[in-house]
Amino acid sequence: MIAASLRLALGTAVALGFARFGYGLVLPAMRDDLGWSLAEAGSLTTANGFGYLLGAVATAGAARRWGSTRMFRLGMVLCATSLAATAASGGYGVVMAARAASGFGGALVFITGGVIAARAAERAATALPIAVYFAGTGVGIAASGVLVPPLLAGSPDRWPLAWVALAAASALGTAVSWGAARTTDPAPDRPAEAGRAGLLDLWRPAAAYLLFATGYIAYITFLSATLADRGAGAGDVAAVWAVLGIAVVAAPWLWRRAAATWPSSRMLGSLLAVIAGASCLALTGWGGLPVVFVSAAAYGAAFMAVPASVTALVRSVVPPAGWPRALGAFTVLFAAGQTAGPWAAGAAADRVGPGAPAAWTAALCALGALVAATDRPRRPDRTDRARPGARCPRG
Q1: Distances 164 to 6, 26, 56, 83, 221 between C-alpha atoms, Å
Q2: CA dihedral 240, 244, 245, 247 (to 10 degrees)
Q3: Nearest Cα residue to 364 out of 331, 333, 341
Q4: 246: domain CATH number?
Q5: What is the DSSP letter of 16?
Q6: pLDDT digits over 310-346, tens only?
Q7: CA dist., res. 139 & res. 360, Å (int)
Q8: DSSP alpha helices (H): ranges in 9-158?
Q9: Which domain holds residue 359?
Q10: SS3 state at 353
Q11: Tens of pLDDT along 335-383?
């Protein structure tokens, strides 16, 4: 089970670590070589978010018709293909279309992989497969940090080569994870006829999640550009991203005790507060690169734990038949937030300065933490769980 979960985690490594966050590493070179403003650069992340939104809307129905495993695999192939297409042209429209396609594929992977991991957790009576799945993002971030900056050092015109490298890494991840989806998800999807009451009961976490999605993406999208504006070299950028990725991988173990004992609202609020604090550290610029390392480590230790926490919360409140619909609804909110966030943060950076994205992340995640703090602890919905061997996690 753990081996299959580790291979399944390459889904988030590709869909998020490479296809979404890898853009933050290539952005400075593309901006310099193609003459983009920060608003234009942010709009490409907005295009990625829009594609993700479309994918989130389509995934639940597609998974019911063709199964989560097929949709997971299709999303992986689409991510790898769209990354290769991003290298084909410097035309703004072509790059935007490719970023939108990678977002669509990323949504297929993210949602169906989360459902597969949740089913594995249900059978194993432990949330570890969920935590491992989301921690895979850190592998993609760290690998991107190793691959991209050396390719672009002093040669921004080589940005297509960076996309080719990310596409090749994604193709490898697709091949390795291909069998894991079937191994971890042997059952076909069932119609989502249950769980509506549970979804209505989650409106406060949903609001906090929307604020998180709108805010968090600005930090990681513009991190490399901010470092470049402060004179950081390729080695510094690679080291910061490596720290960020390692922190994401370590997050399940760092938060394991809290996830097992804290109420869901306290867990979500604490994670958002850590992200807000990490962004404030990056905003100050005090202490130079060492403080950026601390900021990246704190951010990495928290930001992917948020969707993992929300997935575990859905699993504890909504019956299994409703998981695809519930996770799809949360992902639509997530996609809507991260579609708007990067463009707004980039436009603010063009007017105010390079610290605007970190300020944006800090403010919205702090507000999300306050919203989460108003939520009340809830008892798991035991509908559709009264079967031998079923065990409800703590909510």
Answers
A1: 25, 12, 26, 7, 19
A2: 130
A3: 341
A4: 1.20.1250.20
A5: I
A6: 877 887 788 777 776 787 788 888 888 888 887 788 7
A7: 26
A8: 10-12, 22-34, 38-66, 68-86, 92-124, 128-152
A9: 2-373
A10: coil
A11: 888 888 877 887 887 787 777 888 999 999 999 999 998 887 655 444 4
